[in-house]
TrEMBL record:
<dbReference type="InterPro" id="IPR021133">
    <property type="entry name" value="HEAT_type_2"/>
</dbReference>
<dbReference type="InterPro" id="IPR027302">
    <property type="entry name" value="Gln_synth_N_conserv_site"/>
</dbReference>
<dbReference type="InterPro" id="IPR027303">
    <property type="entry name" value="Gln_synth_gly_rich_site"/>
</dbReference>
<dbReference type="GO" id="GO:0005524">
    <property type="term" value="F:ATP binding"/>
</dbReference>
<dbReference type="Pfam" id="PF00120">
    <property type="entry name" value="Gln-synt_C"/>
</dbReference>
<feature type="domain" description="GS catalytic">
    <location>
        <begin position="839"/>
        <end position="1090"/>
    </location>
</feature>
<dbReference type="InterPro" id="IPR016024">
    <property type="entry name" value="ARM-type_fold"/>
</dbReference>
<comment type="similarity">
    <text>Belongs to the glutamine synthetase family.</text>
</comment>
<dbReference type="InterPro" id="IPR036651">
    <property type="entry name" value="Gln_synt_N_sf"/>
</dbReference>
<keyword id="KW-0547">Nucleotide-binding</keyword>
<dbReference type="Pfam" id="PF03951">
    <property type="entry name" value="Gln-synt_N"/>
</dbReference>
<dbReference type="InterPro" id="IPR011989">
    <property type="entry name" value="ARM-like"/>
</dbReference>
<dbReference type="GO" id="GO:0004356">
    <property type="term" value="F:glutamine synthetase activity"/>
</dbReference>
<dbReference type="GO" id="GO:0010008">
    <property type="term" value="C:endosome membrane"/>
</dbReference>
<dbReference type="InterPro" id="IPR021841">
    <property type="entry name" value="VAC14_Fig4p-bd"/>
</dbReference>
<comment type="similarity">
    <text>Belongs to the VAC14 family.</text>
</comment>
<keyword id="KW-0436">Ligase</keyword>
Length: 1090
């Protein structure tokens, strides 16, 4: 073999190892010439010797300068070889690649330079070493030396050009290397990798899409990189791939779906959005390939429906709808059990929207694959039952719909009612808070009669007698009060004239016997007044306890409602309804005389025509007790008489009375057993609980209640008397409480009560507390400042929680009346600085500005609001979970089927007038259950004071009425009007001659500051200002004359007279009047456009 040393002059070799670059470069040029001559002569063996010399003695030398010379020499040899270089690449390339890991940065730099020159010469022949070169470049891209990074970048660009030109590149061999590198965290390496993916994807002959599952996860991982540039590059690459997927007929959706599902749960917002967007496209495009992955996809979508980012929520909802619309066949791999498992899991999500969609899925599966879903019911039923305890009414209503769908067949219906009874038994809070909603909705969904019959059947045999009594009382109250059960009540009323009513009466009676008052109520509803009287007469002294009297109190109040209007009308004919009179007098005799219920019933009975009452009551035992039900003409009387007799005999009231007495005997024995059990293990705690007043316990002697309890077991009449006296006193105390609430202090003392009111931490809620003052007050300056715990209202930190109340405006108190007052306050720190939620302070500064004060700004605010049912947060007058007829008949309407809540509205109207608020009117709104009141005209800051106090008065009245006030600008989504607070505005200049020009100038200013005003006009206003339902689009400012679809409306009278006012229709119902009024004044009077 030839010797390389003999082929290259010694001087050249010395210069090649010199520290000066120029000498090494000149030496390299000499080597290039030598190799070129050898190549022309075909001396490839000698060329190999030269390359070996450059490798061993130079490139691998311990001396840095020699290594640098070796690298430049190898590049020169390649240039000298030119077209014949390919056959020597296996000798030339490895030492250069090894130099990429050299500890000397300059050596690594020259290695990049050498490989660059080699690549330029050999081009496509270089592909053989691609994976090794790629691996080396991957590391160099993150090199600590910026010069090396720059050199590597240049080399990388050249290699990319070579690869895109080559037909020898093997993507199959490259992908494993790429997959291995995709999880690196170094930002330079990530940029390098994304760059290569993008380049390779641009080559038509390279199918990167087919290998996308191998590196897709890595690209998604880069979306959460701290570098914006890397995130942008990864997003760009993913967007390009997604577009290719849309246009490609052959895509491996399955493998990628698994990756996307994982990434949809990322903590990074952008990654979640991208993943859910991909899933959305996959659901549209994937077809049968995705069927086995539907459960996993659903598991990713449902949590995203409640994402904090709106864009993610929107895409997730769309994807969810797309997925649910697909009708897959279990034979194609559609796993119903897996889908149910996901839905079941998401029923426990902390987010309401996710729980709702999980229920929609169960409902959809039931509709399509009922038999399969029913077969998996054992795994799902408990979760669905737990959903009935959900804090969200919408979740509960949906869960009930699912339960109703499951319960279409008798077996599952029986199971549902049985489990509901057990749930109510185990969770009394559920019965108290959700029982009415659950029963009422089930009656709508499953037929009320069927539901009540089954409940009655279950409760008839209930061993827990205390629970049975409570449950029956609840069912009875629902039956008597719910609008959804009107037909069922109608059927019960026919118990004495129709066999269907008779069957229902008998069915309910068997369990209603658990509660005397429920039994009496049922008889009153069925007009079985003779039997009601018999039930009352059968009661024993121990039956008439505090619980009984509470239930009786409720019944007496119910007798005054429209439900029992027929009964009150029957009292106009005491001759026909003598047993009704006897029943009512029997109830009256059981009530303590000081109770409110006694007074109500006594007042009602006083209205009964007095003629022949006593005689009729005496003669009740001799007449047919049920002939009173037949209110027919003489011609019809004979026709129905036989039917009545048959029904009366079929009901067999004597047997029913015996059934009632037997059940009550069980309850008495049960109560006695409990008392014996408690007394067998006496404790201080039990003595304490037995006392009415804990502070009066004398440990040495039993309390009066304990003594009475012990005597009951011995059937002592004295003890029974003591209990009844105590319970009567309880009701007397309740009546006294009512009297004290209504007490007018002005007749007894000079002192007054001042209710201090302020705006809470949300900016919408109102808070208040009361204090005693020595005498009447006429001006806020006479009132003392006060303080409260701001940490409990979200207005101060716990470590410095004191917030100071500054009295600002006084109003008469319509609740306590007399000289008592309501005080509107604003809030300050102890240092005298307004707290962030104090919007009045800044408004007062604007209105006190001389320019604003001179204009005497008038405001009239139209406050719209919605009244909601307390337990379900659904508008009053609306069926639970359903909707009334379309909008149209409700605006300014009258009638029980159109105007809902007028009592509350009128009470508020009068209370505001009493308080001294300038309330100018009320009206029913377009959406049923929605109303409006108007405050004004008010000058300046007083508009805000008066509207806030008017809102407070309304909150208090709805509190007493048991309904909920909502200021949500769009309480019901869909084709229903929202709620605003249209603000009418006029200044002195606008009210003067030529004022129309001033109005137009003011409107132009408001238009130029539209965005600033919208931002301050209330939360959630974007849901209301849609361009529909008498609103302008939130992003568009437009004004017009008499145009209720505009941002600003000018009245016809104003246009005609050339002066007046305009109406800003943009403020939401939950707006802060201090903010809105002061901002309008500032913009139209103080702001000077540039």
């Amino acid at each position: 073999m030839a010797d390389g040393l003999s082929l290259i002059p010694a001087s050249v070799l010395r210069n090649l190892a010199d520290k000066l670059y120029e000498k090494r470069k000149n030496a390299a040029l000499e080597i290039e010439g030598i190799v070129k001559q050898l190549a022309l002569a075909g001396e490839h063996e000698k060329i190999s010797a030269v390359i070996n010399l450059l490798t061993v003695d130079f490139a691998c030398s311990p001396q840095a300068n020699q290594r640098k010379g070796g690298l430049i020499g190898l590049a020169a040899a390649t240039v000298g070889l030119a077209a014949e270089a390919a056959q020597h690449l296996e000798q030339i390339v490895p030492p250069v690649l090894n130099s990429f890991t050299d500890h000397d940065g300059r050596v690594r730099y020259y290695a990049c330079e050498a490989l660059y020159n080699i690549a330029k010469v050999v081009r496509g022949d270089f592909i053989f070493f691609f994976n090794k070169i790629f691996d080396a470049l991957c590391k160099l891209s993150a090199d600590a030396d910026p010069n090396v990074q720059s050199a590597a970048h240049l080399l990388d660009r050249l290699i990319k050009d070579i690869v895109t030109e080559s037909d020898q590149f093997s993507i199959e061999e490259f992908i494993p290397l790429l997959r291995e590198r995709m999880n690196v965290l170094n930002p330079y390496v990530r940029q390098f990798l994304v760059g290569w993916i993008t380049v390779l994807d641009s080559v038509p002959d390279i199918d990167m899409l087919g290998f996308l599952p191998d590196f897709l996860d890595g690209l998604f991982n880069m979306l959460s990189d701290s570098s914006h540039e890397i995130r942008q590059q990864a997003d760009s690459a993913l967007s390009e791939f997604l577009q290719e997927i849309k246009n490609s007929p052959n895509v491996d959706y399955g493998r990628m779906a698994e990756i996307l599902v994982q990434r949809a749960g990322s903590s990074d917002e952008f990654t979640r959005l991208t993943a859910i967007t991909w899933i959305n496209e996959f659901v549209k495009l994937g077809g049968e390939q995705l069927v086995p992955y539907y459960a996993d996809i659903l598991g990713a979508i449902l949590p995203c429906i409640s994402d904090k980012e709106e864009k993610i929520r929107v895409v997730a909802r769309e994807t969810n709808e797309e997925l649910r619309a697909i009708r897959a066949d279990p034979a194609d791999g559609f796993n119903i059990d897996a889908i149910l498992s996901i839905a079941r899991r998401e029923l426990t999500s902390e987010w309401e929207a996710t729980r709702i969609e999980a229920l929609h899925w169960i409902s959809a599966l039931l509709a399509r694959y009922r038999s399969e879903v029913i077969s998996y019911l054992n795994h799902t039923f408990d979760s669905l039952l737990n959903a009935l305890s959900d804090s969200s009414n919408e979740v509960v209503l949906l869960a009930l719909e699912v339960h109703a769908c499951i319960a279409e067949d008798n077996k599952n219906f029986w199971r549902l009612v049985g489990l509901l009874v057990r749930n109510f038994q185990n969770d009394r809070v559920l019965l108290e808070r959700r029982g009415a909603l659950i029963v009422r909705r089930l009656c709508v969904l499953l037929d009320a009669e069927r539901v009540y019959r089954q409940f009655s059947l279950n409760l008839e045999q209930e061993e827990d007698l205390d629970f049975a009594s409570v449950m029956v009382q609840a069912l009875n109250l629902i039956l008597l009060t719910s609008s959804e059960l009107a037909e069922l009540r109608g059927l019960v009323k026919l118990s004495l004239v129709q066999s269907s009513g008779q069957d229902l009466f008998v069915s309910l009676y068997s369990s209603w016997c658990h509660s005397p008052m429920a039994t009496i109520s049922l008889c009153l509803l069925a007009q079985a007044y003779n039997h009601a009287s018999s039930v009352i007469q059968s009661l024993r002294e121990e039956d008439i306890n505090a619980k009984f009297l509470v239930q009786l109190d409720k019944l007496i109040r119910l007798l005054e409602t429209p439900i029992f209007a027929y009964l009150r009308l029957q009292l106009l004919e005491p001759g026909k309804y003598t047993w009704l009179l006897k029943t009512l007098y029997g109830l009256l005799m059981m009530l303590p005389q000081q109770s409110a219920a006694f007074k109500i019933l006594r007042t009602r009975l006083k209205t009964v025509p007095s003629y022949s009452c006593i005689e009729q009551l005496k003669g009740t035992s001799s007449e047919n007790p049920y002939s009173q039900i037949l209110q027919f003409s003489e011609d019809n009387r004979n026709r129905y008489a036989a039917n009545v007799a048959n029904v009366y005999n079929a009901i067999d009231f004597p047997s029913r009375l015996q059934q009632f007495e037997q059940m009550q005997h069980k309850h008495r024995m049960h109560s006695k057993s409990k008392l014996q059990s408690r007394n067998s293990t006496p404790s201080i705690a039990s003595q304490v609980c037995g006392n009415k007043y804990i502070g009066r316990i004398t440990p040495s002697f039993p309390s009066p209640r304990d003594y009475a309890t012990s005597q009951i077991m011995e059937q002592s009449e004295t003890a029974k008397t003591m209990i009844s006296i105590e319970e009567e006193q309880l009701f007397a105390d309740m009546a006294l409480l009512t009297d004290l609430i209504k007490l007018n202090l002005s007749d007894y003392t000079e002192k007054i009560i001042a209710e201090y009111i302020w705006v809470g931490g949300s900016g919408v809620d109102l808070r208040s507390k009361a204090r005693t003052l020595s005498g009447p007050v006429t001006d806020p300056s006479q009132l003392p400042k006060w303080n409260y715990d701001g940490s409990s209202t979200g207005q101060a930190p716990g470590e410095d929680s004191e917030v100071i109340l500054y009295p600002q405006a006084i109003f008469k108190d319509p609740f306590r009346k007399g000289n008592n007052i309501l005080v509107m306050c604003d809030c300050y720190t102890p240092q005298g600085e307004p707290i962030p939620t104090n919007k009045r302070h800044n408004a007062a500064k604007i209105f006190s500005n001389p320019a604003v004060a001179a204009e005497e700004a008038w405001f009239g605010i139209e406050q719209e609001y919605t009244l909601l049912q307390k337990d379900v947060k659904w508008p009053i007058g609306w069926p639970i979970g359903g909707y009334p007829g379309p909008q149209g008949p409700y605006y300014c309407s009258a009638g029980a089927d159109k105007a809902f809540g007028r009592d509350v509205v009128d009470a508020h109207y009068k209370a505001c007038l009493y308080a001294g608020i300038d309330i100018s009117g009320i009206n029913g709104e377009v959406m049923p259950g929605q109303w409006e009141f108007q405050v004004g005209p008010c000058v300046g800051i007083s508009a805000g004071d008066q509207l806030w106090v008017a809102r407070y008065v309304l909150e208090r009245i709805t509190e007493m009425a048991g309904v909920v006030l909502s200021l949500d600008p769009k309480p019901i989504q869909g084709d229903w009007n929202g709620a605003g607070a249209h603000t009418n505005y006029s200044t002195k200049s606008m009210r003067s001659d030529g004022g129309y020009g001033v109005i137009k100038e003011a409107i132009e200013k408001l238009g130029r500051r539209h965005k600033e005003h919208i931002a301050a006009y209330g939360e959630g206003n974007e849901r209301r200002l849609t361009g529909r339902h008498e609103t302008a689009d939130i992003d568009t400012f437009v004004w017009g004359v008499a145009n209720r679809g505009a941002s600003i409306r000018v009245g016809r009278d104003t246009e005609k007279s050339g002066k007046g006012y305009f109406e800003d229709r943009r403020p939401a119902s939950n707006m802060d009047p201090y903010v809105v009024t002061s901002m309008i004044a500032e913009t139209t009077i103080l702001w000077k456009p540039t």
